[in-house]
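Annex B. Sample input.
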Amino acid sequence: MHFTSTLLSLSLAAVSVNAASVERRQEVGLLDDALVFDAAAFPDPANAGQTLVGLQSFVSLRQIDLGPILDGLSGALGGIGLEEIGDGIATVEERIRLVGAIGLAGQEVTVNVDGCSQPVTVGRTSGFPDLGMVLANVSLGECGAGKELVGTVELGALDNRNLQATVFNSPDSGFGVISDVDDTIKISNVLDTLALARSTLIDEPKAVEGMPELYASLTQSLNDPQFIYVSGSPFQLFPFLSEFIATSYPASRGPLLLQNLTVLDIGQLIDFVQSDGIDTYKNDMVDRIVGMYPNKVYLTVGDSTQRDPEVYAAAFNTYGEGVISCIWIRAVEGADNSEERFATTFAGIPETRFRIYQDADIPSLAQIDVAGGQC
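Annex B, continued. Sample output.
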C-alpha cells in the first residue's frame, strides 16, 4: 500500500543530516534525547557471578516541533479514511514522535543500574544506515536480587531530566515465554489497513480478551518465567507498545524487541507493522534470546496473521523440544488458518508440541501443565 507523505519536516533526517555533521560530542548532552530500551539481563557465561545486559539505545537531537508536520497530517489521515479524528490528533502526535527524531552518530550512553556494581556504557552510536542506534552486550558486574532493575542514563550536572529504562534480570534456568505482540496479545487488526492505522495511531490499545489473565497465570505456573516480547514493528513505536505491555500485562512485563528500521512517514510506519516478510528478523531474535539463556525452556506464543507459525517451527527444528517446548498460535479470523498451512509448517514436529487455539479457548490454556511437559 502507499500513503501520501505530508511529513515534509521529516525529510531533514534523510537529506540534511549526515553522520559527520552530527558526531559532535561523546556523551549525551542537553541538546540530545536518549532512549534506552528495556533490556534483558543474563548471567555472564565467562564470569561466574557477573551479569551481562543486552542494552540498546537511540540518541537523537532534542525533539523537534511537530507543529508543521501536524498541519498536513489531517490530509494524510483523510487519504486513508481517518478524516474525522477530533482530539485524536494529540494521540497521533505522541505516537509518531520518534518518527521525527534525527539520530546522532558518535554518542556514548552510560547507564547506572540499581543494585549492580558498575555502570555500563553502550558505546558510540552508529552512522548510516542505523543513525543514532547502538546495541551491545555489556557487563553490569555483580547484581543483587531483583528481577526488575531500574537503569538511569548518566547526564551532566545541569541536566535534571530523568531518563530511565527497566532491566529484566533472569537466571539461565527455568522457563521463558517468547511472545508476539500484534494480534497475539494486542488487538491490532493487521489484516485490515484502516483498522490497523486506527489501532496504531489513534485508538486506546486493547488487549486480546483473556490474554492478560492467561499470562498472569503463567507467571505462577512457570515459576516467574522471563517474558520477552518480539514484534516486527519499528522501534519508533517502542514508547507506545512498552506502555501498553506495562499497563495491560503488569504481571508479565519483559523486554520488548523491535526492528531497527528508518521510518520517515506514517505510511512506512503502518507498512512495517503490516508486512509479513519478517521471518529473518524474528528468527534472529529467537536466536538472540536462546543465546542469552541457552538453558531455559521456552513457550512461544504467536498468531496466524503473519509468520509466527513458520518462525516458531523453524526454531523448534533448530533447537528441539528441549528448548522450544511448546508453540501456541492464535487463529485470527480472516488469516490463513488452513489445515494445509499448518500441516506444511509443522511437518515433522510432534502434534503434542504445538497448539492452534481460538479465542474461546484462551481461558482453558491456563489449565495446561506446560511446566510438566504438556502443550
